[in-house]
Amino acid sequence: MTPRTNADRLPAQMLLGEVCPPTGDRFGYRVDGDGTAFLLPGMGGVTLGVRVGDPATGHAADHLEPGLSVWHPDPAANHALQYLTCVGNEVTVLGARRPTGRVYGQHAYVLVDLAESDAVDVAPGDRVAIRARGQGLRLLDHPDVVVKNLDPDLLPRLPVATAPDGRLRVSVAARIAPAAVGAGTGMASEYANTDLMGVRSGRIGDLVALEDQDHRFGRGYRAGYLAVGALSTGDCRLFGHGPGPTTLFTGPIEAFDLVDDLGANIGAGW
What we know:
Layout: E1 13-19, E2 30-31, E3 37-38, E4 46-47, E5 67-71, H1 75-84, E6 90-93, E7 100-106, E8 110-113, H2 116-119, E9 127-132, E10 146-147, E11 160-162, E12 168-172, E13 174-176, E14 207-214, E15 220-233, E16 244-252, E17 256-260
């Protein structure tokens, strides 16, 4: 049974952003964890060829952000985009055709999944409108589980339910040991994501469980806690970085009933 929520009490707010251009510096090359220099496409812009449900790793890329990378040039408005957008929120590219997509995660930018046939017509600088809704979502029968960054309309389409014993049953494609958690630790769990070191498999959108991680008021190590997120970025070459999940649920481990399922992915509910 899908958990009961306070979704009827959550207002929606329209936010404005634009597709950020990819950026670089005059030296071009960066150095990976083994000391090898590389020059590869990565963050920003419109990244084609990879969507939610596709492999997150194995690409010739660094800090891969599939689809649209959205920001706002005004810092305060940009923070609103980061903190208020949620996975599953509808995004409309403003223009003559007005194609729609969905937020699938956060990184340096808000990340948007869009059909390839629509994405090829989008360019950096194009404006988008996001129907932001979800921050403040609560599971009424699971008071120990904190929900982060999740559109309530997506919840019923995720492999999430109240188990017979009263715990929150969540299917996950992988369980991640705390030693793999890298960049993102210490940051607000509504901002960007958590990089996972040494992860060499998985798909964009996979639900993963981060063991001994407490993301209720930030991101940090806490024995006996758990965070569940959806992979929102792919290959990362820098030491301490890797594919990163956007946090969706967190709380004490005893509040969860995890089910291993390689098919657990937010794309199934798109």
